[in-house]
Task: structure prediction
Amino acid sequence: MTDNNRREYWNTNLRYLLTLLSVWFLVSYVFGILLADTLDHIRIGGFGLGFWFAQQGSIYVFVLLIFVYVRLMNTLDRKFDVHEE
Amino acid sequence: MDTQAWTFLIVGASFALYIAIAVRSRAGSTKEFYIASSRVSPSVNGMATAADWMSAASFISMAGSISFMGRDGAVYLMGWTGGYVLLALLLAPYLRKFGQYTVPAFVGDRYYSQTARVVAIICAIFVSFTYVAGQMRGVGIVFSRFLDVDINTGVFIGMAIVLFYAVLGGMKGITYTQVAQYWVLIVAYLLPAIFISFMVTGIPIPQIGFGSTLSLEPGVYLLDKLDGLNEALGFTAYTSGNKPMLDVLFITAALMVGTAGLPHVIVRFYTVPKVADARSSTGWALLFIALLYTTAPAVAAFARTNMLETVTNKEYSAAPEWFGKWEKTGLLKFNDKNGDGRIQYVKGTEQNELTVDRDIMVLANPEIAKLPNWVVGLVAAGGLAAALSTAAGLLLVISTAFAHDLIKRNLKPDLSEQGELTAARIAAGLAVMIAGYFGINPPGFVAQVVAFAFGLAAASFFPAIIMGIFSKRMNREGAIAGMIVGILFTASYIVYFSFIDPASNNAQHWWFGISPEGIGTVGMILNFVVAIAVARFTPPPPERIRELIENIRIPRA
Result:
């Protein structure tokens, strides 16, 4: 692998990380804590939205985020031919 | 059959299963003993990780804590799941590529320093012992309540079981036993929750049920009713928080980062064959964990409603059977202060007559909801599965840290393979004894020491590993200085408020209102800052370390 490829692979990875971790931060710290009281004015069934993110929604999003990362990286690994057989 | 018979039957059957699995998967080499030869499939490893991770605290205590904390309980829900995102994205794949057996091995090699290795060994052992003591205690509680045996006898039985399969099978035995334990604990957790959700709301999915309306009072949402009940007794509404927002932020962060830094969780990702597997395995682990973690807040809300409706202002003499049973264990206490023969459960110490230990909420829930006897037995088996699986994982970390990191890599590098395997088994055996000792003579501060474990993991390992992967400039001096400052700061803060001056352990005296539970976040930030500052003024790492970093960043190179 050339140095250029190496750098590109790593930078793409870092970009994925940054994007996904922003979502991670948003659903837990922002929706579940910082803006929870405001979001609680929006109701889905018996849940205030802030309460729902704090006790349910953030966890679902966490699971999704990991599997999205898995897919992105599997594709990236193949593109740069660094995947393991 | 009565509850007792069912409990003996189900618990006995589950133990027989664990032992049968252990006998089938004995370890023959150190590689099998430490990391199951890296031959575990990602989903199986995910399941084992879930059982390893979900401890007696998750199974027995968490829903109870949430039911008393209301919305603030989210610190545990988000804190103990969000760390897996960090693990999958920032740690697991790179550590898998690095491919040693343990966290201290990574820290020692990456920072080319025996000092760093020893600091990491001490942290790993301390964190694991703190944690394992709590598990043994959990085993004792379940035994004494459900099987009517003495707590100490219960701890001995638990020790014998763990000793058998951890010492015999190492990681290989533990992994497959944990898969069985996952099934036992998840079924035991979900089944009563589904029953109760269906009874209360008519919807059998607890995650949806607790946001729905009540069967008995059409049009009234469960959570609205619970808010009302709470407020009528002087408590804060269930869905609004009590804790200051800053503290909630810091606790959540400390638990997330601590999770990602816990050695017994990290080591599980060495057991899969490939880097890509380490990523997906983390996803599987969180999916299996999420099944319980999204059910727990529902259980909490149902249990709280049930309890308030069952006991509030009821005649003590007419209290249900489970009430008396739990009074005997001392986890439920009634003191008729105003002598009217009724149970007053309200906020404030003067009028309140009922003290409820949070551990009861899950264990007594099936009885409170009048579920069949065998469900109660299943819950007992589930609690034991949760405690035993976590204990085994922790014991393995302790024995690997001793036999591999300390003896083989530090003190006696010429130790033979067979000698190391024997050392690992002896270490595991000794660790079980010490854990059992703490289970029988619990330090009176189990709750605080758990905060300790997370705080230390957050303030020591997490920054050291992250910088080890993502910075080529981070060197030995920086990492060691960062870890030491992080640990000392976090430890002194917790020790001060828990042991030296417990009277001042309140928001008024905390720095910026950050509780000891959340202080690990500050320790982590300090670790990063100190490490980066020190690394600036000290020589960069040698060329071979830069190559090592290049190498771990790419799955196949």
The first strand of chain B starts at residue 332 and ends at 334.
